Design the sequence.
DNA sequence: GCCTTTCTGTTGTAAAAACAACCGCTTTGT
DNA sequence: ACAAAGCGGTTGTTTTTACAACAGAAAGGC
């Protein structure tokens, strides 16, 4: 667990809390390290979640497969990101999505309800943590709205441009790397892969962008 | 302001707080009542928000119009619902959407940062309120995910069924009333109104559902 | 009551997406 | 090194959607 303190320190959840204190809190909160091989499930749709999870190594996809095997990718989780916060509230029902390891990954689980429900004076970081949680989920909320904006576009081209230009803004560069291959990007944008591939090549031929694998450059 | 205490008391934000205490808190937080006529803007895209807002009368739409006048409705806000929570975090940027009064409406604005940033021992409800805020935004997060699920469907029919059946589940009945007219529903689901109208009638003819105005019954 | 505006459904056409099948290249595993 | 699996691009066909234009019904204003 100690190895990951530097990562944890940089997460939104532990913002403003020192490394020493994090270690104390983790044990107090019953933190648990779990490892996954590529392709393994971290969480499954329908489960009830009692913990909040931080990814400390690897990468994950939050996704959903329907009856016919059509996959929809809700979001990509990178190192240092939190997930599961939306299901910590008492009335929140079962998980709506699967969480799956895209590569070998390591997570930290811990029972955030202890923070939320125990006497608030028990630990001086309770308040900080609740507030951090609030900011984290607030940010996730805004990013979901932005994803809705991409998906709401009517054509594949518009969806691509909406997504790629937001990534460019986030990464502060016209040259970006995305965490998806073609199929995954299509599943993320809810379009057909071949149609999307086609559109990408048209856009490239028109001089709108260039790409190689998962690196894109916008002009 | 007093007139709306019963409404406020039933909101998620003041859950677990008595009417008397709410009144005290409101003045302490600089709560402000604002009224809007049908069609007026409550908030505008690009603004920076310092307050959290509760709708106590009427109804609102959170929406966005692009350069060409295409409207996209993000969500409908009913009496007792909170909005703006996602923009209270310090690093959250400008508002991504407009908020507009669908009918004559009344809101309560108040500076929630006072709760989040002042010494937490100043008021015994600070912690309750931060926690309530957290649960509220957590629920909104889940509902955004569900909306993404509707929009992610590939055909208009699937989008309609996804949306309507979720409403039926929420309203716990096969017979539901939606807060949208046809154009608004189309803007909510990001499809063309006439195509949607067409599809609805086809579905009716096939015996999948029945409707009259904004009332729908699923079979 | 009458006029105007808004709302909903209808139709036809053009554009776009989904779907399916296939190919060559790369990566992976043994 | 070889076979198998995965990935990305291409093409043709079918389905679906967007778009535009219009008409009748309903609602709202004066």
Sequence:
């Amino acid at each position: 667990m100690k190895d990951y303190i530097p990562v944890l320190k940089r997460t939104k959840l532990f913002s403003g809390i020192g490394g020493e204190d994090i270690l104390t809190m983790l044990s107090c909160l019953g933190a648990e390290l779990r490892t996954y091989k590529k392709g393994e499930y971290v969480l499954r749709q329908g489960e009830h979640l009692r913990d909040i999870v931080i990814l400390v190594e690897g990468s994950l996809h939050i996704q959903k497969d329907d009856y016919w095997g059509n996959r929809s990718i809700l979001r990509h989780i990178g190192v240092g990101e939190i997930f599961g916060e939306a299901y910590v509230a008492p009335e929140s029902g079962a998980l709506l999505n699967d969480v799956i390891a895209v590569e070998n990954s390591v997570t930290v689980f811990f029972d955030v309800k202890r923070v939320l429900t125990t006497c608030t004076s028990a630990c001086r970081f309770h308040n900080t943590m609740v507030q951090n949680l609030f900011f984290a989920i607030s940010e996730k909320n805004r990013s979901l709205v932005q994803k809705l904006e991409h998906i709401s576009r009517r054509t594949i081209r518009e969806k691509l441009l909406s997504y790629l230009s937001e990534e460019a803004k986030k990464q502060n560069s016209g040259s970006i790397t995305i965490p998806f291959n073609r199929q995954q990007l299509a599943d993320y944008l809810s379009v057909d892969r071949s149609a999307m591939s086609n559109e990408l090549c048209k856009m490239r031929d028109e001089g709108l962008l260039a790409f190689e694998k998962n690196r894109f450059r916008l002009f």
The first helix of chain B runs from residue 5 to 9. Chain B has a mean pLDDT of 90. Chain B touches chain A at residues 64, 72, 74, 85-92, 96-97, 116, 120, 127, 130-131, 133-135, 137-142, 144-149, 151-154, 190 (CB under 8 Å). Chain B has two domains: 2-144, 153-218.
